[in-house]
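Final report, closing paragraph on structural work. Over the funding period we assembled a curated collection of sequence-structure pairs, and we close with a single example.
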Amino acid sequence: MHTETTYFNAAAGREVYWELGVEQVKILETLDGSTCPLCGPLDGTVIELSQYQAGVTAPPFHPNCRGTICPYFGDVTEEKIAGKVEGEVYYMPENMTFEQRKKAFVDGEKDGLTILEAKDILNVTKQSENGESSVRTVGHMHYG
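Its predicted structure, as stored:
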């Protein structure tokens, strides 16, 4: 049942993105101690929506796969936060690889990561080069 839910979730996303004119999607994997060696490295892989094929270019890649897709816009930078329900929450750099995430959030070596406070989890303030601030809601968390 888990695999079928993953399949239909990604397929529904594909249809919505297609109708909205999204051209590329990114594979988004659940990154924790149960992430398989096939799916972990695929996290962040960008594919053309026209090339979407469940089990080949998009999740689910295997039974009980927990991956999904999200729209990809090359000119938009993203911010992610990560942590454990009972522990600290950290800012996760956009270019952090699966192996680096595994080292930090499964193996516990979080050197160089920034701890976020509760107020920072919902709103991240960015200051532009001209000194203006903007607040964006961070809506994506991975739990390790």
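Confidence is low (pLDDT under 50) at residues 133-144. The radius of gyration is 16 Å. We thank the funder for supporting this effort.
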